[in-house]
Amino acid sequence: MSYNTFGHMFRVTTWGESHGPAIGCVVDGCPPRLALSEEDIQPFLDKRRPGQSSFTTQRREADQVRICSGVFEGVTTGTPISLIIENTDQRSKDYGEIAQTFRPGHADFAYQAKYGVRDYRGGGRSSARETAMRVAAGAVARRVLGDGVRIRGALVQIGKHAINRSRWDWNEVERNPFFAPDPEIVPVWEEYLGGIRKSGSSVGAVVEVIAEGVPAGLGAPLYSKLDADLAGALMGINAVKAVEIGDGFATAGYEGLENADPMRLQDGEVAFQSNHAGGILGGISTGQPIVARFAVKPTSSMLLPVPSVSLSGEEVQVVTKGRHDPCVGIRAVPVGEAMMACVLADHLLRHRGQMGVM
Amino acid sequence: MSYNTFGHMFRVTTWGESHGPAIGCVVDGCPPRLALSEEDIQPFLDKRRPGQSSFTTQRREADQVRICSGVFEGVTTGTPISLIIENTDQRSKDYGEIAQTFRPGHADFAYQAKYGVRDYRGGGRSSARETAMRVAAGAVARRVLGDGVRIRGALVQIGKHAINRSRWDWNEVERNPFFAPDPEIVPVWEEYLGGIRKSGSSVGAVVEVIAEGVPAGLGAPLYSKLDADLAGALMGINAVKAVEIGDGFATAGYEGLENADPMRLQDGEVAFQSNHAGGILGGISTGQPIVARFAVKPTSSMLLPVPSVSLSGEEVQVVTKGRHDPCVGIRAVPVGEAMMACVLADHLLRHRGQMGVM
Amino acid sequence: MSYNTFGHMFRVTTWGESHGPAIGCVVDGCPPRLALSEEDIQPFLDKRRPGQSSFTTQRREADQVRICSGVFEGVTTGTPISLIIENTDQRSKDYGEIAQTFRPGHADFAYQAKYGVRDYRGGGRSSARETAMRVAAGAVARRVLGDGVRIRGALVQIGKHAINRSRWDWNEVERNPFFAPDPEIVPVWEEYLGGIRKSGSSVGAVVEVIAEGVPAGLGAPLYSKLDADLAGALMGINAVKAVEIGDGFATAGYEGLENADPMRLQDGEVAFQSNHAGGILGGISTGQPIVARFAVKPTSSMLLPVPSVSLSGEEVQVVTKGRHDPCVGIRAVPVGEAMMACVLADHLLRHRGQMGVM
Amino acid sequence: MSYNTFGHMFRVTTWGESHGPAIGCVVDGCPPRLALSEEDIQPFLDKRRPGQSSFTTQRREADQVRICSGVFEGVTTGTPISLIIENTDQRSKDYGEIAQTFRPGHADFAYQAKYGVRDYRGGGRSSARETAMRVAAGAVARRVLGDGVRIRGALVQIGKHAINRSRWDWNEVERNPFFAPDPEIVPVWEEYLGGIRKSGSSVGAVVEVIAEGVPAGLGAPLYSKLDADLAGALMGINAVKAVEIGDGFATAGYEGLENADPMRLQDGEVAFQSNHAGGILGGISTGQPIVARFAVKPTSSMLLPVPSVSLSGEEVQVVTKGRHDPCVGIRAVPVGEAMMACVLADHLLRHRGQMGVM
Q: Rounded to two decimals, what is the model's pTM?
């Protein structure tokens, strides 16, 4: 069945298609009396907004969010918050052709197999455009988490070109169009991605998201493990094919001492000596930074022809014209941050519900 | 909050601690009139059962499952199926010491931070013992999926030693104590893991699970994406730190043509020319085999000392005596299969609910 | 926590306040390929719309619904259906006074106690205006149920004046402003309610909703019993204080033979000889008409003064000016029908999910 | 679909059939560090236990509850609490006949229509025996609510014989086998019910449950309204056909002033002058006692013959031998209390999750 809601207490339901009149979400369960206005949400949307460099799709959307309920006299009321963004630059003519064919690697075929019908304009519901609403919801989630929790993301790999982690600089992330934390990778990516774009191809990427200031104790032993919920939330972002927490796949190669994060005391508090676990043990936060990484595959929409079949059952070559991201992983950075924020906000409310604290 | 249930229509709730009187689960939403007896479940539990080789924990549990409800005259009735396994070999004396200290890399510290209390005997609720119930539920899920769906898992890496995929042989998986699909890796792992065990250390691993025969159309565009649900389910297995679908992290390094699975026609049916996507596009199954992989970190319980702190706030060195798996990833193979089966059964029921077919 | 969603597979989430810019809902889980347009929804909204007679509030709302997602080329796509109605006649000036006082019998005090803030304009989220979205969702639910299921409601009591059931005429329901099925009660109610309105008072009512053509087998033995879900859904309508199924409270006075509905065979099919059970046994539909009744209390907003207290902690007399329904039970008729439709549609999808039929 | 779970944060899942080996439930989401042992649960089970007077079924069950998980060293751990009761007095021979026929008024026909199979022994899953687990879960819920909340139930009507409310005495409830709060009704009911029992008939009843000390603010404006959740929970008890909150159906006959509960100040606190609302306004508790009432129909199992049909499609007369409650409403009193406790505990946790208080 469709299930366009996530979260248990901080619950987000999204709706809308790429080329419909609007997209939106309903944020339910938000605590009351939090200051909230469009100005708190817009900056995050602006980070994700397309058309800001030659490395993202040229679709021009203002992505102007409007709060339609749940806020009164500048504060949340505890009732559902409806957020809506009008679609303004749809250009449906670009997409007429794909109505009849399936783009390999795209959701086209799977949607048709499931529903027997699909809104093919701009990918319809499967468009990355939907992620704008996740970003909007994430801005509300940050309000719930408060200033003590800081969530930041960065792009750590495009194609075969990974950053050098020893040069990590959070300030750099805001200075380049890639959310790159390594200043020296920027010219490399610029040249590489320029070539990809010109050739009509696309390329994958890896995003890393880190949450600092998360108190120990969020999560649950089983099925609502914090890492399991994060994995589901991040894998649910368009084009994501892999997720890892902390050292992730590298831990498969570790022996016991390489994996264990030793604990010492510092000013009477527990201080971990390393963070291979990525801030989560047994599904519960430890107070260390929560570290997640996810892989974004290359956009399947590209100018290079790929063998495919048509709706009417003929073999064809598919070339996807129109406006597309050569590396959709770039704009996935604010989306990953938002999903992290939503999952943490949900677990914060669930934790204090069961525990009666915080 | 605690949330020991997963699934929407095929719903599994587990309970029990490592050293309590029993562990169990309730499987709710199972269709009626499916033949089911203990004999259908026991073989899967026997695969996961400890103490079968020197490479798994020496705890001896019969893991004899008992169906306590939901089955009448040999068939399911559509009402909740209660499955219970008595704990028989607890030996609580082994664990007295860990009541006072936190094993680095283990859930001890996080549980204490969350709940202010924990059943420290054998890890209590965080013990891998709980996965027996997932395996039991998975056996019921296989009944729901029917014989047309085949779910198999294998161990593809222990520590730095990965299999050679060109030698993949499913029959081999049943012939060695590692669930290894590559006969030539077996002696390598035997020697390596023997050394790990003797040194009192532990090591990580990678498990791969493949489901064949899954019809196209299972899943949903957003939030209940098949891959997102699989990611959550697999990341929720004890000690798992990473999950990938299809080519997973490798897709980050791909350009467009490397990622797209070309489609051709074969006997009038769509035939994919490759399966980089791992059988899922846009969150929905395509009819290709569904391929998932996950990394299991080294057991944190080991004989090597690690710096830690005690409950009373002193710096200590922790050595975990008692019986442990040197490579807990081995027994994670049947658990991964079971989680795949449960997620697919749930999506099958959800799909036919919305679609009214199958 | 707030939880503005109901249903498991056919899921409705509503948002919006009486005097915000708009109200809306998201209908998730709707099967694909059902014909749906605004014209299918509007007639039901028009039945509930205020300002159509002197017996309902004089607020004038066009209640023009707009489908913003989930429908493409005239059919549902299986993705979430967003429905929005703009608020056009808010007149907030009417409500300034109630910001400072609590109307006895109204949600004012409880909201303030819970949230410490409330949108007092027109009752905010607690306004019966929200029920417009239930009616809209109900229209979609009817599409899911198909033409074989007919859901109709009627008003059977206003104040002390009940209808004579022997004169029940469904055609009459559409001919009078009360949804009364008894033509002879109409002048009685006209006179009585005219007096209530002139005196500035209000009055309670009883609504009956009947669903015919519901197949046997919908529902579940426990916790998702069809009657339990109906009770929750109907009790959740504004101002409802009681719900009964079939003969309801009267069954408390019955002896065994008075309660049992005898079964005979007719043309080889089971034919019940009576329907005291209201079409539901053991939480599951029997194929008989499903009969539910609910009591709607008098509107607490009225011109008669009632002792109350103010936000600042003073004793006051509250008189509620502005536009109000003297008998809010009248407009609850289409709302009750809608909730019945939503519950049945949800159970239909759930049933065929578990059973794989229909 | 089956859905044998209720609650969002305080979640109860039950399993088991009347004549299976055992019945049980899993209570998930319970806060940690609450003192809990079997002795806290058993007294409530003993109140519901059959065979204690000639007015309830003669089945003899010890109903000895066993805590199998979630409690360690006398306190809850925050992990799922598994409660199990062995069935000891099944006597399946009593029920052989009903395998082939449908008892009118019983769930037999509906189960068969839904599942195509049913455990007919003692009613299987539809047996009131399942309510023992609700009572057990309710005892845990009381622990969550704490001593400040007092939940008590009473029987206020059997057949046509209602109590005189002016004689209400809570102490009397514990002194007679009916949970009657009116001493003068006891001999009336004794004689009347004795006659019912001898004639092989059965009779309906009304139960009232009152919760005192519930803080203002529990509940939610919509869909998770406290009254809606109570209505669903109480209507979900076996044989219940109607539920009302506060003055319930009587409010349909009220005019505005009769319904409004005036508010005054007393020692600086809001003091309501009456409680027609039953402690709930707008779906949220007001701090007044929460009052709910529900009607229990006569048991359909009785010695008097009723026309029915058989599984093989023949007209028959059904007489139900075996052991049955002549008035199942009596034992519904502790069940009603338990459901009230569970709903309130759930809302308490949800409230403090969203609000971060209490």
A: 0.96
Query: What is the rounded distance in angstroms from the CA atom of residue A89 to the CA atom of residue B98?
Result: 61
CA distance D193 to D201: 9
Q: Are A3 and D347 in contact (CB under 8 A)?
A: no
In order of A271, A274, B124, B125, the CA distances from B308 in angstroms are 9, 12, 20, 21
Give the one of C1, C29, C116 whose C-beta lies nearest to A29's C-beta: C1
CA distances to A173, C227, C273 from C279, rounded to whole Å, are 64, 9, 12
CA angle A70, A74, A77 (to 5 degrees): 35
The residue with tokens 């009351």 is A32
The chains in contact with chain A, meaning 3 or more Cβ pairs closer than 8 Å, are: B, C, D
d(CA A207, CA A331) in angstroms, rounded, equals: 10
Give which of A281, D1, A135, A233 is closest to B229, Cα–Cα: A233
Q: Which two tokens stand for residue B181?
A: 């699909």
| Per-residue pLDDT of chain D in tens (358 residues, 90 and over written 9) | 568 999 999 999 999 999 899 999 999 999 999 999 999 999 999 998 877 777 777 667 788 999 999 999 999 999 999 999 999 876 656 566 778 899 888 899 999 999 999 998 888 898 888 999 999 999 999 999 999 999 999 999 999 999 999 999 999 999 999 999 999 999 999 999 999 999 999 999 999 999 999 999 999 988 889 999 999 999 999 999 999 999 999 999 999 999 999 999 999 889 999 999 999 999 999 999 999 999 999 998 888 999 999 988 899 999 887 767 899 999 999 999 999 999 999 999 999 999 986 4
Mutate to test the interface with B, among C5, C354, C357 (most CBs of B within 10 A): C354
Element (H, E) at C315: strand C315-318
Q: Which pair of tokens denotes residue A243?
A: 């997720």
Residues of B in contact with D353 (CB under 8 A): 1
Name every chain B residue with its beta carbon within 8 A of the beta carbon of A315.
264-265
Q: Name the residue in chain A with its Cα closest to that of D78.
A: A354
d(CA D326, CA D298): 8
C49, C53, C57, C58: CA torsion to nearest 10: 100
β-strand pairing of A71-72 with D22-28: unpaired
Task: Quote the CA–CA distance of C219 and C344 in Å, as a whole number.
Answer: 9
Q: Which residue has the tokens 């791909």?
A: B254
Residue type, D223: Y
DSSP string of C10-74, one letter each residue: SEEEEEE-TTSSEEEEEEESPPSS-B--HHHHHHHHHHH-SSSSTTS--------EEE-SSEETT
